[in-house]
Design a protein that fits this description.
By secondary structure, the chain is an alpha/beta fold. It folds into 4 domains: 129 residues, Rossmann fold; 179 residues, NAD(P)-binding Rossmann-like Domain (Rossmann fold, 3-Layer(aba) Sandwich); 119 residues, D-3-phosphoglycerate dehydrogenase, domain 3 (60s Ribosomal Protein L30, Chain: A); 88 residues, 2-Layer Sandwich (Alpha-Beta Plaits), CATH 3.30.70.260. The strands form 4 sheets. A 7-stranded parallel β-sheet has the order 8-7-6-9-10-11-12, with helices on both faces. β7, α8 and β8 form a beta-alpha-beta unit.
Length: 544
Amino acid sequence: MAGFAAGRPRRPTMCAMKVLVCDELAASGLRALREHFDVDVRTGLSPEELAEVVGDYDALVIRSATRVTASVIERAHNLKVVGRAGIGLDNVDVDAATRAGILVVNAPQSNVLSAAEHTLALMLAQARNIPQAHAALVAGSWERSRWEGVELHGKTLGIIGLGRVGTLVAQRANAFGMRVVAYDPYIAPARAQQMGVALAASVIDVCRRADFLTIHLPKTPETVGIVGRDELAALPPGARVINTARGGLIDEDALADAIASGHLAGAALDVFADEPVAEHRLFGLPGVVVTPHLGASTTEAQDKAGLAIAEQVTLALRGEFVPFAVNVDVGADIPEAVRPYMRLAERLGRVAVALAGAGIERLRFDYHGAIAEHDTRALTLSGLRGAFSAVVHEPVTFVNAPLLARERGISVEESKSSQSLDYVNLVEVHAEGEAGTVSVGGVLVGKRDTERLVRVYGYDIDMAFAPNMAFFRYEDRPGVIGIVGSILGQAGINIAAMQVGRTSEGGEALMGLAVDSPVPDDVLRRILAEAELHSARTVTLDGS
């Protein structure tokens, strides 16, 4: 995708540009920036102090401590790029930056190896009670019999999320002689087999089989609390949990209860829902090993992150292509006729893979109508970004999206047709997997280019995208809609909008709902059983 420019086309004199570094950055990164720019290092700024000074700078470099909010961006009159020296972007309002034409870049590959190694380090430390034995010995107690541990060899490691970090952990677990089972709906079965990983149908299926459970997912509305009380209860007695990804993915109160009750042998945690944290219910429990978010805290990772972000910021300020731009669609070379459809394609990608479920092997993007006459590569990349954004540990960009597909054994195809009988322009995404092919289609309507979902599972519908959606397939008969509405009402879930499509009276029908809050799994299972549905799927989008 080197044809897409990233960054604004301004080209001030390089030496006159100013870069503000707000968090600790490796010396190698600072040296690289100072070769080209006037660099100020000002750590510990409050949001108000940052907003006060940010307007004087062309670039802002941060790590996890500094928050770049919409109010900061409003004051950033000269800012062209925000660089995050690491993977996560939880502390950057990317949407506000995009609206302001400010490029956001990160260093997604800088700490994957360190994070994977830290996962194994915590797993071993927890399994062998190393921190507890060390503390006892240096305190003067030789307690050899007290700290008996367990071997990793022959145990089953459950992995939720087989992105780069999850894959590295799986490889190392195989070397320890562990069996590996994983849940990742975007891994093709053939690719998992090559990795020596058995795929599970769901998170709870992984939990039922895991002696050790580790999570490698981003923090999104879909993944917060993905391991809750039900999942922890499904783990075999004596199992152990590891989290080096993001705080909040595990219900920490439920985890503490499971350990305190003796159901779980312990946990090893590097991240927490609220950070920094010095007191926590988990800290006093036996079998719990904790570290203060050290997954990326190696000399090598910090050097890689510093150098990578210095390179990305330099490219952005030169107006050149930036490989790790998260919001590269602010670039100038994407056709104007295509640009309005980019978010639509991203949302369709997200919906298609959510409905398709596990074992996706192929994604096809079809463009119908006048839009097919243009270069639609940006739309396909937007669709891939939507497809992978909910489950991979790093932000999905135009550059890494194709690589993520290849790593998961998913083929990507694109087709065009200038004919579109029903709409001026129609974008369709087809996700093909073990259970067949799921197709969704969308259009833009009206003067404001409002995004509409017009085809799902081959049914014609017309509904707006919403943060929380549910799709039910069932035999068309009286009473089904009433059952669904009643169960949702009992669960306190309000239906904001409903669309129904069918091919014939008495045949299969589709019900699409926009709801004001997510539908819990237990509610979904109840609807599936009591309404005698053929299938029930939910979709969560980042915004409306």
